[in-house]
């Protein structure tokens, strides 16, 4: 650490800002009268449930949202569900993933991604991410076994993965691809929306996401059979698609999106382009004005023009240095985080100990799954990157003064800590 400690707010100096920046919440901070009107309309019509109710002469808000969302993403089908995790579960079951199957997931992701695989009684196999913080296609190929059935690229913090390379690997080995777009709604990869490239895609509308309904999610696909199974999974096996009047009944679960969530999500979807434009403008401004700093490197993006720009991410030389930078930035009232405490899901206790909600311990106790071991050091490159990263999450309401404060804060901290 360099001299000048006394200038940092962390050590008693005056902070760049007197109050913290508003939280990330890109969609939530844009909520206004349109969302209010949409919710009040649902309440006045007493239409809280999409399929029936006292005011069912009115069109379903969820159905309207699904149609608009499929059009926005560029897929034939979209299904509104109760959360991003529900979307993962419905998509995995829609693709037929189940007991004894292996699904390759990135070492850098939220625990919900591999958790949904486990809930489907399949086994998550963790693969390295590269400097883009997306799945490394070369490492993915090296982890494929005869039990591998699918790959889940996770588009982290607004930036799409290397989908062309990942799709080549998947097609070569006849694997399904499920895009996890929970953090990257609206992003593009080479002219196509994230979520429309693989066999299925999922989205989250939780409060912290690019667009929000407070909670909620969506499944998208061009494959009708996958869609139809996902629909039945989300509604206790019921046939809800008009052309499905027969077929084999299924035992499903209850992951339906309610009408108020559909109403809010529909309004937020109309705000998506403005939200992303604001996020991109903020990110470009910050990165341009700190790009000359020595000792930091920005993440390498697979398609910089297509990113949804949810955060500014850079790496420093050591984990200890990253933690010091993060502490110092927060003392300056510039919100910075180390994502998931710098640890991949397999280093979380529930994965290390194979602790599931199932009394049987499936899938880990299933003989056909083989011996499953999770331990520190499985993906050393990912662990190194996660430990050295500094993440400044953005929102779509940052003023020019806010952006200048972020730039000043990073430069001030870098002068001492990097």
Extended strand count: 12
Give the terminus-to-terminus CA distance.
7 Å
Give the second-level CATH assignment, the architecture of the domain at 33-268: 3-Layer(aba) Sandwich
Portion in beta strands: 5-15%
The radius of gyration over CA amounts to 22 Å
CATH topology call of the domain at 33-268: Aspartate Aminotransferase, domain 2
Molecular shape: globular
Main beta sheet: strand number and arrangement? Answer: 7 strands, mixed
Q: How much helicity do the residues have?
A: 25-40%
Treating each run of at least 4 consecutive H or I residues as one helix, how many helices? Answer: 12
Spans of at least 5 consecutive residues whose pLDDT stays below 50 are none
The strands making up the biggest β-sheet line up spatially as 1-9-8-5-4-2-3
Would you identify the CATH H-level superfamily of the domain at 33-268?
Type I PLP-dependent aspartate aminotransferase-like (Major domain)
Average pLDDT for all residues: 95
What's the layout of helices and strands?
Layout: H1 33-45, H2 61-73, E1 77-81, H3 84-94, E2 102-106, H4 112-119, E3 123-127, H5 137-142, E4 148-151, H6 163-172, E5 176-180, E6 188-189, E7 192-193, E8 200-204, E9 217-221, H7 224-234, H8 259-290, E10 297-298, E11 311-315, H9 319-331, H10 349-352, H11 380-388, E12 389-393, H12 400-417
Parallel strand pairs: 2-3, 2-4, 4-5, 5-8
Antiparallel strand pairs: 1-9, 6-7, 8-9, 10-11, 11-12
Q: Can you describe this structure?
A:
- Helices cover 35% and strands 12% of the residues.
- α6 (163-172) links the parallel β4 (148-151) and β5.
- The chain is of the alpha/beta class.
- α2 packs parallel to α8 (259-290) and α3 (84-94) packs across α4 (112-119).
- It has a domain at 33-268: Type I PLP-dependent aspartate aminotransferase-like (Major domain) (Aspartate Aminotransferase, domain 2), CATH 3.40.640.
């Amino acid at each position: 650490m360099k001299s000048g400690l006394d200038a940092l707010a962390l050590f008693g100096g005056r902070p760049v800002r007197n109050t913290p920046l508003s939280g990330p919440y890109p969609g939530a901070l844009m909520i206004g009268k349109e969302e209010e009107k949409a919710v009040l309309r649902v309440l006045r019509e007493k239409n809280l449930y999409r399929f029936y109710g006292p005011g069912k002469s009115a069109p379903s808000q969820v159905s309207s949202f699904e149609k608009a969302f499929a059009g926005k993403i560029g897929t034939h089908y979209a299904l509104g569900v109760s959360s991003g995790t529900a979307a993962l579960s419905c998509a995995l079951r829609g693709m037929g993933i189940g007991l004894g199957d292996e699904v390759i997931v990135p070492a850098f992701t939220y625990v919900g991604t591999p958790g949904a695989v486990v809930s489907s009684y399949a086994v998550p196999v963790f693969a390295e991410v590269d400097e883009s913080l997306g799945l490394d296609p070369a490492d993915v190929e090296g982890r494929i076994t005869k039990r591998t059935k699918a790959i889940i690229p996770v588009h982290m913090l607004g930036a799409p993965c290397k989908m062309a390379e990942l799709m080549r690997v998947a097609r070569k080995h006849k694997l399904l691809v499920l895009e996890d777009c929970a953090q990257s709604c609206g992003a593009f990869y080479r002219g196509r929306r994230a979520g429309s490239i693989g066999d299925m895609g999922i989205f989250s509308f939780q409060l912290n996401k690019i667009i929000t309904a407070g909670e909620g999610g969506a499944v998208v696909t061009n494959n009708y059979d996958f869609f139809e199974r996902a629909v039945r999974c989300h509604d206790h096996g019921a046939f809800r698609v008009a052309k499905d009047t027969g077929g084999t009944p299924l035992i499903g679960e209850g992951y339906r999106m309610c009408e108020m969530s559909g109403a809010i999500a529909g309004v937020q979807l109309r705000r998506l382009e403005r939200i992303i434009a604001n996020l991109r403008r903020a990110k470009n401004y910050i990165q341009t004005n700190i790009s000359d700093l020595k000792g930091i490197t920005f993440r390498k993006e697979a398609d910089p023009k297509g990113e949804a720009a949810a955060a500014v991410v850079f790496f420093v030389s050591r984990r200890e240095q990253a933690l010091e930078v993060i502490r110092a930035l927060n003392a300056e009232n510039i919100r910075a985080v180390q994502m998931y405490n710098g640890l991949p899901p397999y280093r979380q206790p529930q994965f290390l100990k194979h602790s599931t909600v199932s009394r049987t311990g499936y899938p880990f106790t299933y003989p056909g799954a083989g011996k499953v071991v999770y331990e520190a050091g499985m993906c050393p490159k990912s662990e190194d990157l996660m430990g050295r990263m500094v993440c400044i999450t953005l929102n779509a309401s940052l003023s020019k003064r806010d952006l200048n404060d972020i730039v000043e804060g990073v430069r001030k901290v870098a002068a001492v800590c990097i």
